[in-house]
Amino acid sequence: MTIGILGGGQLGYMLALAGYPLGLHFRFLDPSPEAPVGRIAQRVTADYTDQAALEKFSSGLELVTYEFENVPVEAARFLAERVPVYPPPAALEAAQDRLAEKGLFRQLGIATTEFAAVSNPGELDSAVKALGLPAVLKTSRLGYDGKGQWILRTPQDLAKAKSELPPGKLILERFVPFTRELSVLAVRSSNGETAIYPLVENHHRSGILRLSLAPAPRLEAPIQRAAEGAARRVLESLNYVGMLAIEFFEHQGELLANEMAPRVHNSGHWTIEGAVTSQFENHLRAVLGLPLGSTGPAGNCAMLNLIGDLPKSSEVLAVPDAHLHLYGKSPRPGRKLGHVTLRAASPERLALRLSELPAFFRRPDFCLDVALAPSASLRA
Ligand code: AMP
Questions:
Q1: Domains plus CATH for the chain?
Q2: Is 143 in the pocket of ligand 1 (CB under 6 A)?
Q3: 113 lines ligand 1 (CB under 6 A)
Q4: Ligand 1 atom closest to Cα of 173?
Q5: pLDDT tens profile 127-172
Q6: Residue 113 alpha carbon, nearest atom of ligand 1
Q7: Angle at Cα 141 formed by Cα 136 and Cα 146, nearest 5°?
């Protein structure tokens, strides 16, 4: 049985690694000849808009899924006429456009920060009048990892943004002075079964995820229930199949949904060692209509992204309970090259393990100071 995957980055790589024990085969489509999956699976190198290549790619596949959320929706729809495509292209479409995404959250009664559509300097002025400063201006489409985003704090920032406004649809959001960022990973199978992982606490620098703590420290039942309720509403409303991630801000004891990803997610990498069933395996089980695996945690985890350069493997692996994942990409600033997961039997033990990581991890962008600080801490 061969599964087709659009996108050949590390998420696809880890999907394939989870699928081999289930006897699955994989075929990837990615425009880049350097896509990491080339090392472990069949890879078709072609543009997502190349219909002849899509046709050839889909031949003999059981189904198609994707690991990259900016796959053109037309490509997903073209394939869906030939072979089942999960998650449904409608989910891809909603997730690609921040205005549509926040509109969907609203429609489902899921709280978000206040926002307004902006497509010219006049609309930006009115939006700032309505929402106030500080605010965050984002391109509505094709933004990721903090790209295409500007924080407006002062009238000068507003004037600058107006003079440099990029073309296309934008969204202005009220800035949320959040307590923390959390994400929920949920999965729905083609037979309707759902399962949800415990919330994860995420720390970003320059818009890129650096550190996830799972389950989120000091996780209270009402917050977990609220996240599960939101995830279920999205899953049901889209007749969703596969893994879904929703990112939230925790603010004044409530969750505000920021965005969703219709795919396996970086904040779920801890599940490889830290949950009974990984997000990658559960995604495959879901799209194949197989029973889902338990989403229960197997201890306390910290996942650290390795961005731009790599530590010495021997130094990482010298830390008990550390697991190293390298994606086989050549180093480049800002590029996700791998991750490390530490798993421990308790939050205190996890804090100890984090403090034992080599000096490489003391850089501020690993956010260890936040995780280990006595106030917001694993030790609290
Ligand atoms: P996003 O691309 O929407 O996930 O934004 C990247 C990061 O910017 C988020 O993880 C937050 O840390 C920050 N951010 C985005 N939107 C807001 C907002 N409305 N208020 C405060 N911080 C935000």
A1: 2-85 (3.40.50.20), 114-174 (3.30.1490.20), 180-372 (3.30.470.20)
A2: yes
A3: yes
A4: 19
A5: 999 999 999 999 999 766 566 789 999 999 999 999 999 889 999 9
A6: 19
A7: 45
